[in-house]
Each structure stands twice: as structure tokens, then as C-alpha cells.
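for the record, two folds in this file. i put them one after another cuz i was lazy. first one right below, seq on top, C-alpha cells after. the second one comes after a little note so u can tell where it starts
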Amino acid sequence: MKNEISRMFACALLLLSSAGFAQSKWKPEIQGGCNFISSGVLFGNWGNGWDAGAGVSYQLKPSLQIAANTSYHYFPYKGGHVFYAVPRVLGINSSVEGEKSYAYEASFSARLNTAKSKYSPFVSFRSGLYYLNIGQINVKIWLGETPLDGDIYPYAGTGKAVLKGFGSVGLGFNIPIASRWAIRLESGYTSTFDGSQQLFPVLSTIQFNL
């Protein structure tokens, strides 16, 4: 699955190259930010995370920029939505432990800008693939005071990896900071196509004009 995402990003670069090389129109990008979990069943036991990535954009028209991006998303284990039954027997104890979750993203995006101000707002549309690695959650049950001899039960729906298509819409604006450098701030709404997970990313991106 990771190889599929790598191939997708390579294809994105080829498509951007086919738009015709013009040095002033190419913009390498480095981005980072936060991912706020809105709802969904995949990451219900994980908290808000962070992401970091890189990509390249191409100014296809004055009002249209297209881009390809790949990034890594991290989500710490939080718990709170693990439901299991324990026999009502005196001396039986239980505990829950979970691992981090993470995701790899490969995506295409289009950014539409109609304003003439150098601090131009834009609307973005992004779509691509998530390789989601859902951390393992283990429920341990034991009899007595110490858990050394307890039994461990993997929690259903965890400890697996899935490939999901997603779509995103966002709003943002550009802030020029030098003749060739700019910062782009952006936020929006992201959902997998099957509705199994929704996120609110808040991103900041540094762009460099070649």
C-alpha cells in the first residue's frame, strides 16, 4: 500500500511536469500543522495529531494553482471509547493500553484565487489516498493483585492498516515574506469517501518560487 502511494506521488510530479516547464511558475513546498479529529470510527480512540509533508505546485493560470503533496500524519492514543465486558467476579481486574496511529497521504490539489491582492485568499480542493495504520489496542484481564499472568485480548478494529480515498475542501490565504518566499495558511474539512473518518486540518506551508 505504501508503494501505491509512492507511485501516485511520482505520477503527480510527471503530470505537473507535462504542464510545461517555466521556472517562475514552479513552487516547492514544505508544510506542517495540526489535524483535529472531527468524527469517525477509525480514530475514535486517538487524539488530535500533527502532520508534516512536502510537495510541489505549478501556477497553471493566474487564478489557478495545481499541486501534488505527500505527508505523514501522527495521532497519539487517547482511549475513552473502548467498551468490553469483564466477569463480575471478586479479584478480577483489567486495563487498556493502546499504540499510536499514523497515516501516509498522497494527494492532488487545485487552488482557486480570484483576488488581486498580494495577500490573496483562495479556495482549495484536494483529493487522494490515505494509508491509515490504526494502532493496536489491547485489553488485559487478570485475577489477583498483579497483572503478570493476565490474558491479553486485541480490541476489535485495531492493529490493522487500510487504504482509503479521501476528499477535502479548504480556505486559506497567502502571505508574501520575500521576493521568492511566501507562507500559506489554510484550514478546511477532510473526509474519507466512505465516511469512516473526518478531520479538520490546520496547515501552514512555506513556498519558494524557482
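(here's the note) second protein begins now
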Amino acid sequence: MGASSVTGVGQGRANHQKGPGNGRNYFVPSVNPHVVAAGTLDTAVTTTVTFPNALTGSETGYAVILTTEAAAAAGRSAVVSAKTDDASGNFESFTVAVENAGDDVMWMVVNSGYGLEVTA
């Protein structure tokens, strides 16, 4: 017969660690796209979003997704009018165009590969 412990100490205790040290906070699934950047804009008619550090790979390896609650309700739209790479070929910025200045736009950038790999 094995020893067991109801208090969590002693010979029969479970040998595991709770909290951030168990790797759950750093788990990255390897088979789905990932959000790599996100934010909100209070736009002028056109607004450029420049990343603090360019994202690895060309802009063709990323999708920029926009949504705007007030503009959509009023029948207006927000579109990505340009995506640009830096001199090294990494995704550096994108430009958002709206029909009405002042529309709040929420955006996210998602890689188009599997896991953390970007496909161009």
C-alpha cells in the first residue's frame, strides 16, 4: 500500500509545480496563426502605424485586420491602403484609410504561416 498525504507535504505528496514555472504562460501552439501586434487608432483620414521593431519577413507574410464599431454602424469603412517593408525586407509599417476622420479603428497583425514561422 502506498503512502499518501492530504496536506501536500511528506512522502506521498504530488511532485508538481503550480503557477508560471510550469510553462503554461509561455506555450505557443505550432499549428495556428498568431497575433503578433495589435492596437487602436483614433484616425485622421489616413494614419500610418509603424512598429517599434520591424516584424521578421516581408509584409506579404502578414495579414492586417481592421474593425471599427462606429464606422461600420454608419456604413463607413476602414481599409489598409499600404503595407511597407524596411530596407532589410522586414514588415515595417502599414497605412489605414478611413472615410471619416476620428473613427476609432482597432487593428491586429496576424502571421500567415504555421506557428511562429512566417510564409511569404
